[in-house]
């Protein structure tokens, strides 16, 4: 991560297959933990572009639950 702004931007396209694979809860928990450590106090925007089979919707909701939104 390059820290030159108080705003963090993340984009997920799918790990196993671009635009089609879902991230596991463990992967999302690991991501959330790293954002808390590296980007403490920053505003973060997270976009899921793994939208085939509605994976993006499920992953976004799972991440919201993990971070408490």
Structure, explained:
The structure is a single chain. The protein is α+β, with helices and mostly antiparallel strands. It has one domain (7-67). It has two helices and two strands; from the N terminus they run βαβα. Strands 1-2 form a two-stranded parallel sheet. Helix 1 links the parallel strand 1 (7-12) and strand 2 (43-48). Helix 1 (25-38) crosses helix 2 (55-67). The chain is globular and about 35 Å long. The model has no long low-confidence stretch (mean pLDDT 85).
What tags apply to this protein structure?
about 70 residues; alpha+beta; two-stranded parallel ribbon; 2 helices; about 40% helix; about 15% strand; globular
Summarize the structure.
The chain has 69 residues and is an alpha+beta fold.
What are the segments in which pLDDT stays under 50 over at least 5 consecutive residues?
none
Strand elements, count: 2
- Helical/strand content category: alpha+beta
Q: How many independent structural domains?
A: 1
Helix content: 25-40%
SSE inventory with pairings:
Elements lengths: L6 E6 L12 H14 L4 E6 L6 H13 L2
Parallel strand pairs: 1-2
